[in-house]
Known about the structure:
Chain B is mainly alpha-helical. In chain B, 77% of the residues lie in helices and 3% in strands. Chain B has helices spanning 3-28, 35-60, 68-82, 87-110, 116-134, 147-154, 162-180, 182-192, 194-199, 204-230, 241-252, 263-283, 288-315, and strands at residues 140-141, 156-157, 160-161, 232-233. In chain B, the strands form 2 sheets. Chain B has a two-stranded antiparallel sheet. Chain B has a two-stranded antiparallel sheet with strand order 2-3. Chain B is globular and about 60 Å long. In chain C, a hairpin with a 2-residue loop joins strand 2 and strand 3. The longest helix of chain C is centred in the last third of the chain and has 27 residues, at 221-247.
Amino acid sequence: MTAGAPLLRMEGITKRFGSATALDAVDLVLQRGEVHALVGENGAGKSTLVKILTGAYRRDTGTVELEGQPVSFDTPAEAQAAGVCAVHQEIHLLTHRTVAENIYLGREPRRWGFVDWRRMNADAAALLLDLGLDMQPDAVVGSLNTARQQMVAIARGVSLGARVLVLDEPTSSLSPREVSILYALVARLKAQGTAIVYISHRFDELYAICDRVTVLRDGRLVETRPLAGLERLDLVCLMLGKRRDELRHGTTAFAEHQARTAGEPTTAPLLETEHVGGGSRLRDVSLQVRRGEIVGLAGLLGSGRTETARAVFGADPCARGKVSIQGKRLDARSPDDAIRAGIGFVSEDRKAEGIIPELSIRENLTLAALPLLTRYGVVSRRRQREMVDRFMERLGIKASSADQRIRELSGGNQQKVLLARWLCTSPRLLILDEPTRGIDIGAKGEIQGLVNELATDGMAVLMISSELEELVEGSTRVVVLRDGESVAELSGDQLSQQAIIHAMAEGGSTSSPGIAPDHPVH
Amino acid sequence: MGARAVSLLQRSGALVALVAAIVVGAMRYYDFLTAENLLNVLRQNSMLGLVALGMTFVILTGGIDLSVGSLVAVAGVVAARLSPAGSLVALVCGIAAAALLGLVNGVLISKVRIQPFIVTLAMMIAARGAALAATSEQSVSLGAAASGLAWLGRGDVGGLPVPVLLLLLAYLVGWVALRYTRFGRYVFAIGDSEEAARLMGLPADRIVMATYALSGALAGLAGVILTARLGAGQPVAATGWELDAIAAVVVGGTLLSGGQGGAGSTLIGVLLLGVIFNLFNLEGTITPWWQWVMRGAFLLVVVVVQGRLQRREAHG
Amino acid sequence: MAQSLGLEPARRAPAAAPASLRRHLPGPQYAALGALVVLVVANAVFTPHFASTSNLWNVLLQVSTVVLAAVGMTLVIATGGIDLSVGSVMACAGAVAAVLLERGTVLAVIAALAVATLIGVVNGTLIATMRVQPIVVTLATLIAGRGIAQVISHDGELVTISDPAFMQLGRGYAGPVPVQVLIALAAVAVALFLLRSTPFGRYVLAAGGNPAAARLAGVPVPRTIMTVYAASGLLAGIAGLIVASRLGASDAAKIGQNMELDAIAAVVVGGTALSGGRATIVGTVIGALIMQVIATSFNMLLVPYAWSLALKAAIILVAVYLQRPRRV
Lengths: 522, 316, 328
């Protein structure tokens, strides 16, 4: 497998977006006929690396060699012509067109200058048969399920003569049976000498079909090594940037405060979800949050953390299970219902789902509280100003004035405004999705301290975070999700980074014997 | 309702309605099913049909062209002005002028990245202004040398009026182009998902520019025919045609979101609207104003039903 | 990080340098105000009789109906929509009033405005709840509305108006000030109040600026969208009554013709971005004045109407180009 010159060698790839460095001198080497796992948490740079490989982005520095020849792709078309293809997570196909059209778009077989439909369908049928896919070439792609659409995208790559095929989260929505079809296809391509870059967060899959793994973190290369002999726990440690023997304490603002005592278990839970499920990612989540508690929600990317929060808040429909607030069934159909029940929700995506960019800090901050500030249909300027002043001071929001547009603020200050948006509605339950992601260290500490204070004052907080220190030091209890299911609940002495990593990687835990940890392994 | 039934209804709804309208017409009006009346319907709608064909290409890419009515006027005025130099010169220059303005639309949309709606709205105003300015707001009579143009407007080939022949020919070419050429396939691809089309390596900018130029050219052809029929180029001609063209395209079953539809369905849409108004006229008691009301209401019903069907398809 | 950056290369390329540059440039409203001042001064110097009191009143009088329609259009565009039906709605309102005037002025006016608002509500309902594109819905009501206006006015007849109270709308004066200018000013004041002092104003901007975030913050997005189209219909209805009163007749074919273009032009030139999330009523008034001053001066200079059309188109394009959505 390692013999001979590599099929593809990327060296010292760097990419900056404005002032942010997305990739910093990353290397990737692919051999013929290998399945190469590319892993890393959010923001690690996987997507950027793949986009550079496939010509969607241009690299700032670094070299790419394909079969020893230096190459530089300016467009996806050039990359495809050279045999480098990607099948993206959100599938880029033409949904109103047929399977055959999608496979041959841009290279339609022609006769006297006109598209030869008969030959195109026949060629597509032969190709699908060759790949072991049971599919009609004249089926409209939009009528196929996601798995089959993915197969079409792969078939297109194969028909382009791909020597390097990138599969970005190919199984995120596949059923076990469909996954096995995918595995068979990958095995077939591998035997033909195709190099496959496989991006996935599901460890079972990585270990089932990948030969080597490259780990990225924060835009840097952490390690490339054979997957065999690498324990899952070690792989998670590599992704998160931890060492097994060195799981530190005391790096978050939570540590400065007293360790959180467990809320009195005698009190009824404020929020309770029972076997909540819906959509493709959320399967079966049960958890409880009491007054004065910070409950952490842990899990790798795609494990259903955000989906849980959105289902509780009524932002997405919750198809199965039950959500109740103070023992009363809630089942919010829209955020409005949840807000009236006293819930606030700070989304993980500040830009897309948080700020109203063109509006001022004042209007952003009071958006959810407007009904409280309105008398006879008029927003009371005085009360609005008082509210804004109070929260800007309390949260230490730094801005030239309350009239400044929110898009001009730093990420940390934007996040504080969004927190304040909910605090001024005096919620009973606050759901925070990655409250400290992408903001500077100072603001991070302030927000952590504030959350701690809120809980001490009796608010119930559900906090989603990818940072283990934040979870361990901030939470009263931590619920761990894996593949859309709650697989463990850790508290007290059991609550440690190691235990969370263990639950994320392997599922299950001694503290929640009732929930089955098993996951089908192929 | 099954997905198949939904998509059948979406594709063939207009055809069913057209057949129904013809049957009603045949049963109710003695004069309806005569060659003279039917040819009349075709002739009256031939120019709008050409404009709607160009609009079909544009809408298939997910765009819109509000300037077509003004481009019809520009082409008509140019053709009338140049008619002393001969019919061919008038024809070619009329079409070329409109095509060029269409290309300007395309460049502003694909390269400068301004919304199609605004670009073509501005072109609609500006081109109308240019047509008015160039003629001092007077209509321009055809030169005596342009006997060929007269034939274009009023002649016939074996009983078939020339404008109708051109209409049928244009739709045949348009249908073949959309179905059997790469250009046509790319038009569908861009309207389906411009991002996917770009990732698959299609020259999206060039295709978009070409569709607006084509829309301009077909509007130009319609403008020259109109001038030939009227015997003069009128700067105020074809006001509001963009609305009728869009209505015909949408009624035929081409989705405004792009990527679905085709030349055939637009022809059916044009004929359906044409036949309906012919029936109104034959009825005689329905005033033109009620026809306007029904036209708008009809368009609303069609888009609402289309939207429902589409969402159903997306969910099921 | 890459995820949160998640931008396509095409968008981000020009971001860095112009952003810092733009901070030192005046906002779009001030640019528009500057343009208006330059236009007025230039006209005062070069156009004979421009700087006379009667002419200036004339400009204000002419612009008042455009301002009414454009104020509604500003609200609609702020939610990220468009309303092409305003001209037809004007014609409908004029027709309803003209036909009903013999049964009482108040009844006629109320009925006319009710019909205008109803058309707006139809637009809003289809857009907000059926999720049909605004451009198609309002295109359809543009077509149908013109027909309705004709049908109402006894199948396309010119219905003359002689009601003295109604004639005050378009021809009356309060002191030196034309009544219609006062009405337009009142509409501007109400819109400013709504935008600045009520929850509704914030909801409009939030729904247009970031619908997903607005929904998560509990903003009633569908209701807000419905309301702006209804408001646009109502304001267009008022404008229609004024024009009918000016003409002394309901001319269903002429009233409000191309008004949608004038209103959009005023909004865009005034600095409200078509992408939604921003609204400047004062800018819209300035935009309407700019277009009117150009039209008036061209008229006085005997420049053909046609050229003013071409210039109008160029101004719209440039204004939109300068306000292309940019990412920060």
